[in-house]
Amino acid sequence: MFDTRISRRSALMGAGAVVAWIASPARALLQVAGQREIPAFVDSLLARMTVEEKAGQLSLMASAWGGGKAASLNPPSEGSNFDQQVEEARLGQLTGVFNGNGARMARIMQTAVMNGSRLKIPLVFAADIIHGHRTIFPVPVAEAASFEPELARRTAEAAAYEAAGAGIDWNFAPMVDIARDQRWGRTMEGSGEDVLIGRLFAAARVRGFQGESLRSIDHMLATAKHFAAYGAAEAGLDYNTVDVSERTLREVYLPPFKAAFDAGALSTMASFNEISGIPATGNEWLLTRLLHGEWGFKGFVVSDYTGDEELIPHGFAADAREATKLAFLAGVDMSMQSGFYRKHLPDLVRTGEVPMARVDQSVRRVLAAKALLGLFDGPFRRIDERREQTRSMNPKTIALSRDAARKSIVMIKNDGDLLPLPRSGKRIALIGPFASGQHDLIGPWCVYGDDSKAVDLATGVRAAIRDRNSLIIAEGSGVEEPLAGGIEAAVAAARQADIVVLAIGESQGMSGEAQSRAEIVVPEPQQRLAEAVAALGKPTVVVLKNGRALALEGAVANAQAILVTWFLGTETGNAIADILFGAHGPSGRLPVSFPRSPGQQPYYYSRKSGGRPNPPGPLAEYKTHYRGIPHSALYPFGHGLTYGRIEYGALTLSTGRLPANGELTVGARVTNRGRRAAEEVVQFYIHDRAASITQPVRVLKAFRKIALAPGASETVSFRLRRGDLLFLGQDLKPTVEPGKFDVWIAPSAESPGVTGSFELLA
Fold it and tell me: What pTM, to 2 d.p., does this model score?
């Protein structure tokens, strides 16, 4: 499928490369994809550029004057000092830098270029603004738990407002990789396991980052990453091999990218992984034929950090020169950090191994993006030190951070209605490594955020309760190491209390890039702490900090109440306290399945049944399950409780037979029988009983989030048409076949909810 090129050695080396490229259908597709509204001056500028200057426009480097945590978020490399980098920019050897140190740094560099360079092509300033700039919002997987794409649009827009105020033109987000193996550390950076949620949140974040015009000084260019199937790494091991069928690629991993591009994203980042033997950075089928040809993508492709250089250890390229050629001809327009393009592209053009027309095409894409960003008209349009200060962490943005954090919290258990806690009259022991302190609050992948400016849990709880003396705090243990005397002190604190709140889970260093975990459990020292405290028999609430789904065990799983709080950002403590004490009700739902055991990974709800599914009831021999473990989640995708008591009435179907060009309405009456208001996420799933390509046991087709006062009811309806039932047939073309379909309106992917069936007619 992927390697349908002329063999790599014959077609991509020497003069044969040029002949093959000129003669190939891919070239024609590239030319068509390149036909977009490009300012007339771009071609005039191209005609004046040397090949070295063109290579410079295709070379992006980390800022030598890095901002925040930039130096710690990527592998160390030997780069220029700042003065050298400014000179490189002036000489036209750089298109821009990323993760720099704010507006002052950007002004120094841009001034040098606009005053001293030959062609005065403005630099572009990029950054990793994954879930906030100075004000930090919940990590993306947490925000996906809100089941509110509009919330993601708002937080992305707020992040863009702050970042653009600091001189940032281009953002390396959103990450839209589907994550179905929770061992993968970058689960936290995406929207979870479901394709529909992935598509909706990808589009929402692009719209938020980019706004209505890229010229806006309040917005920035978005990058859909990592193209493609990065989340499918074998065993959840970051950077590992990916070997998936084209069907799986098109059905699962590509749709969020298409949604991002349809929403207007004009850059994408090639992923580190290989796909079926060909690294994405060197995959011409992926980056050229599919992306530009089939999809008509109008933007440009940037490598990930040294992605082109990594073609060598992949065993795909023999040396730096060949890696440059393979990446560039495959469709990587811009090289990040390796410096390969500026070192090797000019000579590859001179020897005829890379056509100048192909170089011009990439440069044209990059210059067009700079023009769309308004940089040629106003190179300093986003560079304003005063604006940087006034936009940073203003009250409105902080309030949005708190609201987003509240909506991201998922209550997965609440036995005996332990929650919400009373604000007075009870002594509370707040125990665990995340009980207090300015650490592990903002979460992974924050270049510019600062834990010291975030609200910890103890501070949030103190602000929520009436008597601060009723709160007892004990650390109990470290995150991954025991604390001398910690368990004893924690048990003593718990003995004095009426209720225990156990703040445990992962540190922010345990999630993110290069943080795959073989055992997705609460670290052992914290588990021992939980067991010791549980032995007292006090009512216990677990406040779980995590960047992925975890396999909960023992005293943690058996606690009366569990809140999944992820990494919530600047307003962590206040938001958790809002939910703990009932100022707001929990409304989040799991965007990833919590397994019964780590050994179930990868696990996701929309799996296939296989030929031997276990029938309802006890585990049966010679059926699909692990020894002693049902083939189901402990807490499935879509699960989440409220402070109400939600009931689903009988399912209604407007008709039992759906004509090929007709429409069917599926509905159910949802009622809150509780004494508190609630927000319920009503989910609509389908299953195609028999098809020429086997179909998942359930697929989420739509959802609605509704607010219900105590005693209130609402009829929730979903419309279904033939087009909603399409799947990729044996020829990989969309099709649908007559037959029986099951439908559910349910509170989660594995809940029975209310169910029915209909027949699709020919």
Answer: 0.94
What confidence category does residue 69 fall into, taking pLDDT thresholds of 50, 70 and 90? Answer: confident
> Rounded CA gap, 233 and 253, in Å?
12
| DSSP class per residue in 493-522 | HHHH-SEEEEEEE--GGGSSTT---SS-S-
What is the rounded average pLDDT for all residues in the chain? 94
- The residue type found at 494 is A
What is the amino acid identity at position 618?
P
Q: Which of 432, 436, 440, 590 is nearest to 510 (CA)?
A: 440
Distance CA 149, CA 111 (A): 39
Residue carrying the six token digits 């040098």: 112
CA distance to 133, 151, 441, 597, per residue, from 545 (Å)? 21, 21, 9, 18
Per residue in 362-389, pLDDT (tens digit) is 999 999 999 999 999 999 999 999 999 9
Cβ density class 683-702: b for 16+ within 10 Å, e for less: bbbbbbeeeeeebbbbbbbb
CA 131-186-278 angle, to 5 degrees, is: 125
Q: Find the Cα–Cα–Cα–Cα dihedral 550, 551, 554, 557, rounded to 10°.
A: 60
Degrees, nearest 5: CA angle 55-88-377: 75
| Residue entry with tokens 């591009």 | 261
DSSP structure string for 683-726:
EEEEEESS-SS---S-EEEEEEEEEE-TT-EEEEEEEEEGGGG-
Residues 6+ apart with CB under 8 A from 160: 129, 171, 208, 209, 210, 211, 218, 219, 220
144: helix, strand or coil: helix
Which tokens belong to 379? Answer: 């190179």
Active site residue ranges: 304
Contacts of 524 (CB under 8 A, 6+ apart): none
Give the rounded distance of the alpha carbon of 106 from its chain centre.
28
Please state, as a whole number, how many other Cβ atoms lie within 10 Å of the Cβ of residue 277: 14
Main-chain dihedrals φ then ψ at residue 367, nearest 5 degrees: -65, -35
Element holding 340 (H helix, E strand)? helix 340-350
Name the token pair of 215. Answer: 């010229």
Euclidean distance between CA atoms 582 and 464, whole angstroms: 10
At position 215, the amino acid (one-letter code) is R
Question: What is the per-residue DSSP string for 381-400?
Answer: TTB-HHHHHHHTT-HHHHHH
